[in-house]
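Supplementary Methods, section 5.1.

A reviewer requested that the exact input to the structure prediction be made available. We therefore reproduce it here, unchanged from the version used in the analyses.
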Amino acid sequence: MSWPPALAGLLLALWDPQSSLLQVYPFRLADTLLMLGVWLLLAAALQPWLRDRQARLALVALVLVISLTGLARDLRGAAAGLSRGFVASADQAALYNWIRSATPASALVVTPPFGFEDLSLQTGRAAYVQFKQIPTSRAAIQTWYLRVTALAGGDSDVWEGPGGWAARPRLSKAYNSLDPPALRRLADASGASVLITRGRQAGPSGWRAGYSTTGWTAWLPS
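The structure derived from this sequence is encoded token-by-token as follows.
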């Protein structure tokens, strides 16, 4: 059920060099149909058993318990996140507040490759690149690839090995290992107005610490 839209999305690329049609993401439809198919198969398998009234009541009770447990967990998380604007941590929320108040609207912020996907939404400032925010057009994907590689100090070997989420440790380690001269080259090449490092990592050569929290430091040109 799910493979026709996924296959159609791949075939469209042959006649759509700019990949503009892929921006509607037929793969998301494929994902949805896959889960729908799983649930329909499960319902079909349970149908003979559910003819018994007590079995139906037991299933309804089980579904309610699972749903209410998940809802209670989500509500606790939402309540905790509401106080900091649904930012991942209080440290990061404080960092975003500083970026909003201390930088111009035109500022470009270079960050580690993960964990700052909401920076532009929260601060109104442009983010250089995030690994998870993969574009759909071919030209944009090339730019995304080059920028993520730049966060690793230009070392393309960082792409060797498992991709997807499994690449996170390699990319994060590469960025966190950049020394001040390498960070300065990254800042200059990207045109950064602000560069964020984790914890006690030294910043770009010749730059000054503009703001620090327990987990992050924001560096500004001197």
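Residues 90-221 form one domain. These observations are discussed further in the main text.
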